[in-house]
């Protein structure tokens, strides 16, 4: 077992740091339905953390708790050593937590460039009057952020569709633009909700490469939900397994793979 | 062959980001500005000013204002007439209370007052959306008209209940009142329209514009990437109402000269401006101009052709105008929801490849 306080170095030489976010005894109820039951786990600086589980296990709800979209009924979320009070989703975004959605949530009426620029809204500060007359501040700020966004565009290889309205793009590219928008915010934690869903093999390989590159180059901590086990086992440093709202496994991929509870949850088990 | 982006290399993000990236468009824009400022003021007469240019300029301001709210921020409003009335009564009270202050300042202040009222009626937008918000703003429309009718303080206790614009001049030239020349009316409105259009363009291309469009396209996703829905919607209402208030102030003080609130700023006005925005193109500054031009010119055109040319009775021509506008709205909503601006964009895209489309 690894030392849980110090962090460690992975086989491919990446450094995993201390605890960045900790979820303590999270319970989430919708009326009489309990979506998440008393789950605790932590997310470490620089790691790729996967959340897996069968359909309806509460993975997306968990992600929504992390992103502040749902406020947990019980339990607390600790970020960078402080307990996070009840916050609005846009305040969580300002803390440096960005996410993508299972079913793409891009702004269809805007171009790819504008969509990615929206990712930097939390970092842009110029006021109403400066913008109204496009004097120094606003114009300079726009260019500075444009430069950062162009780097991400290069990084994700979407230069040629920069000015295309998002509504016209095919599915795989939309997913990539959504990732770009999330990256543009320069997040500490990036939440990916099924980034490979509905993709073919090549698109999945591209996406895996991007996720690894993001983690490697920007040092972004990544939390992902994914159904493709091959992807999860290859990419992630540690895996949380959920079933019926409960945590049934937590650890490195190889450990989770051999966990009997996990195998039962996925393959089903005969009840006598 | 002349409408090309080839050879026009952009070497900085500023150049890439400009409003008219194609040189021919830029030239066209400057030419239009030159004609508007240099030629029309010299040749304009009272008929052209009152029938075409002044209403076009004022409605264009109002349409830009409404387009920011409906087209960019996605918040439907039927209260435009009411907000224009706020601008008109604000400028009237200001002009009568402070006769020495230039009327230009009054018009801007009237816009500011309308912005405050707009924010007040925009607050419900945080909770209600779509049709329900439209009904809430409809309530604003009827309430404001009722208010200006009911409280004599607003029309300075005049016996007729009307407000009448006093004579005011700037730099020795009358801009309001009966002695105003056609050129002065035109120039006053044109300068304000230029300012409004510039500000609107700058706001919509920057951070605030992106926030508005994000809220319009998908409000939940917008909130998750860090857009505060309250302040974003409220700024949209404020900026939109500011422009609409300016339009209302000009409509009363420069164009009409005297106004009765129910007649000049009734529900019909709200619909007229909404139609301008729909026909012109939601979410487009150019569309606001196109829609305003279209709906101002159509009646003039029909009147000249049907009544002047074919000798039909006036009332028949007026009814045909209503039918045409109604039909056009339906056609546009079904066939081209992005209006004239989209037709213009498509035409330009085709022109860029013409005559070799492959």
TrEMBL record, chain A:
Gene3D superfamilies (UniProt xref): P-loop containing nucleotide triphosphate hydrolases (3.40.50.300)
Molecular functions per Gene Ontology: ATP binding; ATP hydrolysis activity
PROSITE patterns attached to this UniProt entry: ABC_TRANSPORTER_2
GO cellular component: a single term: plasma membrane
Domain ABC transporter: 21-269
Keywords: ATP-binding, Nucleotide-binding, Transport
Family annotation (PANTHER family): ABC TRANSPORTER ATP-BINDING PROTEIN, CONSERVED COMPONENT OF ABC TRANSPORTER FOR NATURAL AMINO ACIDS-RELATED
Name assigned to this protein: ABC transporter ATP-binding protein
Origin species: Paenirhodobacter hankyongi
UniProt lineage: Bacteria, Pseudomonadati, Pseudomonadota, Alphaproteobacteria, Rhodobacterales
Automatic annotation (TrEMBL), chain B:
Transmembrane segments: 27-44, 50-69, 76-95, 101-123, 130-148, 183-200, 236-259, 271-296, 316-335
Keywords annotated in UniProt: Cell membrane, Membrane, Transmembrane, Transmembrane helix
Recorded coiled-coil stretches: none
Main subcellular location: membrane
Origin superkingdom: Bacteria
One Gene Ontology term, aspect cellular component: plasma membrane
The name this protein goes by in its record: Branched-chain amino acid ABC transporter permease
Organism annotation: Paenirhodobacter ferrireducens
């Amino acid at each position: 077992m690894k030392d849980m306080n110090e962090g460690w170095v992975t086989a491919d030489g990446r450094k995993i740091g201390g605890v960045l976010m900790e979820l303590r005894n999270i319970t989430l109820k919708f009326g009489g339905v309990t979506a998440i039951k008393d789950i605790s786990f932590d997310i470490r600086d620089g790691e790729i953390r996967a959340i897996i589980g069968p359909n309806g296990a509460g993975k997306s709800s968990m992600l929504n708790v992390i992103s502040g979209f749902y406020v947990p009924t019980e339990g607390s979320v600790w970020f960078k050593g402080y307990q996070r009070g009840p916050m609005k989703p846009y305040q969580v975004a300002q803390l440096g937590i960005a996410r993508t959605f299972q079913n793409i949530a891009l702004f269809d009426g805007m171009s790819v460039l504008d969509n990615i620029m929206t990712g930097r809204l939390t970092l842009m500060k110029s006021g109403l009057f400066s913008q109204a007359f496009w004097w120094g501040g606003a114009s300079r700020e726009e260019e500075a952020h444009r430069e950062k966004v162009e780097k991400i565009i290069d990084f994700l290889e979407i230069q040629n569709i920069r000015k295309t309205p998002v509504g016209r793009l095919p599915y795989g590219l939309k997913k990539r633009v959504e990732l770009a928008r999330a990256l543009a915010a320069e997040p500490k934690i990036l939440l990916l909700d099924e980034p490979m869903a509905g993709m073919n093999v090549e698109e999945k390989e591209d996406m895996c490469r991007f996720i690894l590159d993001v983690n490697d180059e920007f040092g972004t901590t990544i939390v992902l939900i994914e159904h493709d086990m091959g992807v999860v086992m290859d990419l992630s440093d540690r895996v949380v397994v959920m079933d019926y709202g409960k945590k049934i496994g937590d650890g490195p991929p190889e450990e989770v793979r051999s966990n009997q509870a996990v195998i039962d949850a996925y393959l089903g088990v005969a009840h006598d | 062959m002349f409408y090309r982006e080839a050879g026009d290399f952009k070497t900085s993000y500023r150049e890439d980001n400009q409003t008219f990236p194609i040189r021919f468009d830029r030239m066209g824009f400057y030419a239009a500005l030159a004609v508007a400022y240099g030629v029309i003021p010299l040749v304009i007469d009272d008929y052209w000013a009152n029938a075409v240019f002044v209403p076009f300029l004022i409605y264009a301001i109002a349409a830009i204002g409404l387009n920011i709210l409906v087209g960019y921020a996605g918040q439907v409003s039927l209260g435009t007439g009411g907000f224009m009335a706020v601008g008109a009564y604000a400028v009237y009270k200001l002009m009568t209370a402070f006769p020495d202050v230039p009327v230009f300042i009054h018009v801007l202040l009237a816009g500011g007052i309308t912005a405050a009222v707009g924010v007040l009626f925009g607050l419900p937008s945080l909770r209600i959306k779509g049709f329900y918000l439209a009904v809430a703003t409809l309530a604003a429309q009827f309430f404001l008209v009722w208010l200006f009718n009911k409280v004599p303080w607003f029309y300075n206790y005049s016996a007729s209940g009307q407000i009448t614009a006093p004579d005011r001049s700037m730099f020795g030239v009358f801009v309001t009142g009966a002695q105003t020349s056609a050129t002065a009316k035109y120039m006053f409105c044109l300068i304000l329209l230029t300012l409004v259009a510039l500000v609107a363009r700058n706001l919509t291309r920057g951070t605030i514009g992106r926030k508005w469009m994000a809220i319009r396209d998908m409000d939940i996703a917008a909130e998750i990437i860090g857009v505060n829905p309250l302040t974003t919607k409220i700024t949209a209402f404020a900026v939109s109402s500011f422009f609409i208030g300016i339009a209302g102030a000009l409509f009363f003080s420069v164009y009409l000269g005297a106004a009765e609130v129910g007649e000049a700023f009734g529900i019909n006005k709200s619909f007229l401006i909404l139609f301008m925005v729909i026909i012109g193109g939601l979410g487009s500054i150019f569309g606001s101009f196109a829609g305003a031009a279209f709906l101002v010119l159509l009646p003039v055109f029909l009147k000249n052709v049907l009544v002047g040319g074919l000798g039909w009775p006036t009332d028949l021509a007026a009814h045909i105008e209503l039918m045409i506008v109604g039909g056009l709205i339906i056609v546009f909503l079904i066939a081209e929801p992005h209006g004239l601006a989209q037709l213009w964009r498509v035409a330009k895209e085709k022109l860029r490849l013409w005559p070799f489309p492959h």
